[in-house]
Structure prediction request, 227 residues.
Amino acid sequence: MKILIVEDDQKLADFLNRALQAEGYATDIVSRVSDTLSYVRTHQPDLILLDRLLEDGDGLQVCRDIRHLKLPCKILMLSALSEVEDRVSGLRGGADDYLGKPFHFEELLARIEALSQRDHFSKAENRLSYADLSLNLDHLELTRAGQLIELTAKELRIMEMLLRNPGRVLSRERILSHVWGVLEDPMTNIVDVYMARLRRKIDADFELKLIRTRRGLGYLLSDRTAA
Prediction:
């Protein structure tokens, strides 16, 4: 995912740039209203983190202008103006989400992940694919090399999460929270149990193993052969 950071606080912009790149996102920074629209037209980022109060103008007007271009990008507005009326005006102005400053980076990440699963102008992508794996989101069917693999609802949610983040390590805690919710005991080994089931169903009959473990870190999908 390509993210444009529109922020005139250089310290915050640099932090977001480094932190998001560490999470695997491609990022760029602009600090002025006058540069934002030209960048968006040329590079068409997937998501824009848009400061509401910029030195040379109002981010809300920038948001309206971007929507006028009808480009399929998501807009997450960041602002110290966080009263209800401010959030409402931002959302009505075309923002997909609105986050008040200061904010926790983990919350920002969660909102980015949620926005990445939406689509403004067309039906959400109905198929996720990686290597010879394919998940049909309409029929909730997973195939590998054209072979249908029977999965439970929880197994399907895990595979959807992995397929939306190929090559990216997902911690056990993140999988647990996403699939089972925050009420599940964080000390449970249920994630490991389900990953073992998925390996038997998805990898056992194939030479190339796609579900990988990073010891102490979590799980990922990868088709790279081990060194």
